[in-house]
Amino acid sequence: MQSGKEVTIYDIAAELNISAGTVSRGLKDHPAISKKTKKRINETAEVMGYRSNRFASNLRSKRTNTIGVIIPRMNSNFMSSVLAGMEKVANEASYNLIISQSLESAQKEVLNVKTMFNNRVDGLMISLAYDTSDASHFDLLLKKGIPLLFFDRVPEHPLCTNIIIDNKKAGYEATKHLIGQGCKNIIHITGPLARNVYAERLSGYQSALRDFGLEFNETNILITKLDEQAGIDVAAKIMNMSYRPDGVFSANDTCAVSCMSFLINNGIRIPEDIAFIGFNNDPISRVIQPNLSTINYPGFEMGEIAAGKLISHLNNSANINVTDSITIRSELIARPSSLRFNDFDLKVIP
């Protein structure tokens, strides 16, 4: 046989001296073919290097059994957890998962969408990049009836379901916790406010300050990329402040830990001088000393729900082509980075 030539069912049939139809049915585990013959067919197919022509089969069925997912970055424990949940559900339903990352670029996100379209995905799940200002590039898929589902960082779209947590409530609880530990001058480190997650966490922070009679100071809002360098930069800024904060609420754990480490190395006591709380419950929050208080964001569960909803839609047992938000539960985890004593008996200021 010519080297590099694609092996077909006709080659297997010739090798075994049986019909191509029998080979085809045997490879599909058809009950009319005996176990012995199926075994011979599959063993020969493996030896000869046969690959099933799924492309031709997919053209006939108009399905690829492939779903796509676009995320901002791979180097995030939260996103890794989301992907693990998606992959689990997809594999159990015999779907393949194609993953791409926008690298926090709207331009790259547009290219990702076109690539997913050209790969004929049956459906697409998306968490938006930092600088995505509209969702018009997704119309390419919607016009072809390809369903979309957004998770975590989501837009307001009339034809798509969103999977989220209550970010405003989580931001409120994080800030309330710091207030309960005696903090009166709380800095909030956040990301670009065009994204729902950061805008809503900021809103929760502001509401908590208002409810407990603390003044909101615009200079206490630090908009960053929320990476390690951002944490270092914020810490350096804190060290140079004449009126230092006594509490820090960071919109992710990576930035919080980096900020804490820099401050500790410069003689700041955590939580005695500055109490800290982060967001996501990444493993790094349990490595830093003192352990970081955080908001548990159930990424694996979010991934399971997102993939499950999309696949149910594809199998005609659910409809996600509607404006809908599925909110999953988050919770505050208090650890030594913020615990000075038991919370005060907090009272909302009318």
Tell me what you see in this structure.
The chain is α/β, with parallel strands linked by helices and 350 residues long. It has three domains: 44 residues, lambda repressor-like DNA-binding domains (434 Repressor (Amino-terminal Domain)); 133 residues, Response regulator (Rossmann fold, 3-Layer(aba) Sandwich), CATH 3.40.50.2300; 131 residues, Rossmann fold. The protein is built from twelve helices and twelve strands. The chain has a six-stranded parallel beta sheet, with helices on both faces. Strands 7-6-8-9 form a four-stranded parallel beta sheet. Strand 6, helix 9 and strand 7 form a beta-alpha-beta unit. Helix 1 crosses helix 3 and helix 5 runs parallel beside helix 12. The radius of gyration is 26 Å and the shape is elongated.
Mean pLDDT: 91
CATH superfamily caption of the largest domain: Response regulator
Classification by helices and strands: alpha/beta
What is the CATH class of the largest domain? Alpha Beta
N/C terminus separation? 84 Å
Tally of contiguous helical segments: 12
The major sheet is characterized as: 6 strands, parallel
CATH architecture call of the largest domain: 3-Layer(aba) Sandwich
Any idea how many domains?
A: 3
Radius of gyration using CA atoms only: 26 Å
Strand content: 5-15%
What general outline do the C-alpha atoms trace?
Answer: elongated
Number of strands: 12
